[in-house]
Amino acid sequence: MTTILIACGVAVFCLWRMRRAHEDAAEHWASGLARDPLYWIGSVMALIVLGLSMYMAREHMGFTDAGRWFWSAELILIVATLLVRRTLKWRYG
Length: 93
Prior knowledge:
Blueprint: H1 2-31, H2 37-59, H3 65-92
Helix pairs in contact: 2-3
């Protein structure tokens, strides 16, 4: 019974987020933000950060030699993504 409630809760949350994402996307297109190359660069960088994080979690990388390089790349990408987002907010906000 608990599993069914959790599954229903997750499904409702996903539907709610899809509706909000559609509204946000329409708002971005109307303002011209979605046509900006910085918007797409920021989105791709965020996906790369997510993918790199998932890869590091799967491989259980600590602060070994290879792990340090991955953590450094992750930190640099996070900072760069935040800077791109700040630039977009400054430009369109």
